[in-house]
Design goal:
Distance between the termini: 18 Å
Strand order of the largest sheet: 9-8-7-10-11-12
CATH topology of the largest domain: Rossmann fold
InterPro entries: UDP_glucos_trans (IPR002213)
Order of helices and strands: HEEHHEHEHHHEHEHHEHEHEHEHEHEHHH
CATH class of the largest domain: Alpha Beta
Family: Belongs to the UDP-glycosyltransferase family.
Radius of gyration: 22 Å
Largest sheet: 6 strands, parallel
Helix content: 40-55%
Keywords: Transferase
Number of helices: 18
Oligomer: single chain
Structural class: alpha/beta
CATH superfamily of the largest domain: Glycogen Phosphorylase B
Protein name: UDPGT domain-containing protein
CATH architecture of the largest domain: 3-Layer(aba) Sandwich
Strand content: 5-15%
GO molecular function: quercetin 3-O-glucosyltransferase activity; quercetin 7-O-glucosyltransferase activity
Number of domains: 2
Length: about 450
């Protein structure tokens, strides 16, 4: 049961592909909002769920939209599941329901029907832990952060200072944590297992602390996109593969790839500062300008006057790109990212250093780990300025100041490769998960 947003659809479909390769039959129960195309995934069966929500609700308030999904989907999901169970062959048992953590209605249905459930966390383990300790931190007086506490370490998240965790997190994000926490925690307590799309070496201390909170075993089988056999695109946007031909003409490690994900937005001035910062850096760039990135402005009219003439063939601009293929391309040497978890993992897997400018949610925590803990990226100011962008791009890509970051990114790639090896932690966890599903 995936949550119907790009950053959640991808890992769930990747996990489904991984488990299908292990011999399981997969049925995707999906909402009508952002629904997938079944013909793109012939190995899966599909079970549509009436959701009773509109796109307008989503754009107004994400937390309220998730709450609405959970209210409206529970009964239709239970009815659809009962029909599926009644129609299936007697030998084809339903071993378990795997649900995105935000779709906690699915666990409630599983509990009611006495079916085992497994919780998939589409965020980092660190954000997962923060979600569940946030109320405690508030009760104990750590939040709001007082001046004399700003340099103190965050309890449980010892790698980060209190100021770095909470001062960049808007009140709306904190409110969302409190709004969903009770339902999320209840569903986790009843789940048979928890799957996290991460790797042990990235978040080992955090994973240990999470295991102390929940009795269900935790399986770290990330990165999903590397473990999944060939999978059809799960993008809700049309990918423009012509950018690969452009990349083929570029010098190795010379291109900075720029993409802010499927949900972020910016104003016209921010886009213009980004454009001129890229142009002035003199680095080749591949830039994804998604329709809707700037609200209310036609895509073709977004770019500032004189920009195209300035960059010539040095830049390639598309509406959406096949990101995993782009990051794996030999020409790409840097990624200006919003720090969504999928993008962060995909960049780390390819040894690509990151230029980070988060927008909301878990991105605000991910950037702290990318830049302060793992040290595989540089952070941009939230207020975009063409001069600062130019300097940051050059530092990340070519200046000697960025050499340590580039080298460290390659070291992380080697660690990922080890996790995916025959005796690596991710493959071992996958085998253990397979046994767990068969035993529940």
């Amino acid at each position: 049961v995936p949550c119907p947003f790009q950053g959640h659809i991808n890992p769930m479909f990747q996990l489904g592909t991984i488990l299908h390769s292990k011999g399981f039959s997969i049925t995707i129960a999906h909402t009508l909002f952002n629904f997938p195309n079944p013909s793109d995934h012939p190995d899966f069966d599909f079970l549509p769920i009436s959701d009773g929500v509109s796109k307008e609700e989503f754009t107004e308030n994400f937390a309220a939209f998730v709450s609405s999904l959970n209210v409206h989907c529970e009964i239709p999901f239970q009815q659809a599941l009962l029909r599926m169970i009644q129609n299936q062959d007697s030998h084809d048992d339903l071993p378990c329901i795997i649900y995105d953590g935000l779709m906690y209605f699915a666990e409630a249905v599983a509990h009611h029907l006495k079916l085992p459930s497994i919780n998939l966390r589409a965020f980092s383990a660190t954000y997962f832990l923060l979600y569940h300790i946030y109320p405690r931190l508030k009760e104990e007086g750590y939040i709001p952060v007082k001046d004399y506490m700003r340099e103190d370490k965050t309890p449980v998240l010892q790698s980060l200072k209190l100021k770095n965790v909470f001062e960049s997190m808007p009140q709306s994000a904190r409110d969302a944590m409190l709004e969903h926490r009770a339902a999320l925690t209840d569903s986790l307590k009843r789940s048979s297992a928890i799957i996290v799309n991460t790797m042990d070496f990235l978040e080992q201390e955090i994973l240990t602390n999470i295991q102390k909170l929940f009795s269900a075993p935790i399986f770290t089988i990330g990165p999903f996109h590397k473990l999944a056999p060939t999978i059809s695109s799960t993008s809700i946007f049309q990918e423009d593969a012509t950018c690969i031909s452009w990349l083929n003409k570029q010098v190795p490690k010379s291109v900075i790839y720029v993409s802010f994900g499927s949900m972020a937005s910016m104003n016209e001035n921010e886009l213009h500062e980004t454009a001129w910062g890229l142009a002035n850096s003199e680095q080749p760039f591949l830039w994804v300008i998604r329709p809707g990135l700037v609200q209310g402005v036609d895509w073709l009219k977004l770019l500032p006057e004189g920009f195209k003439e300035r960059i010539g063939e040095r830049g390639c601009i598309v509406k959406w790109a096949p990101q995993k293929e782009v990051l794996a391309h030999v020409a790409v040497g840097g990624f200006w990212s919003h720090c969504g978890w999928n993008s962060t993992l995909e960049s780390i897997c390819e040894g690509i250093p990151m230029l980070c400018r988060p927008f909301f949610g878990d991105q605000l925590l991910n950037v702290r780990y990318v830049c302060d803990v793992w040290k595989v990226g540089l952070e941009l100011d939230s207020e975009l300025d063409r001069g600062k962008i130019e300097i940051a791009v050059r530092k990340l890509m070519v200046d000697t100041e960025g050499e340590d970051i580039r080298q460290r990114a390659m070291e992380f790639k080697k660690k990922v490769d080890h996790c995916l090896g025959e005796s690596g932690s991710s493959l071992e966890c996958l085998n253990e998960l397979t046994e767990k599903i068969l035993s529940v």
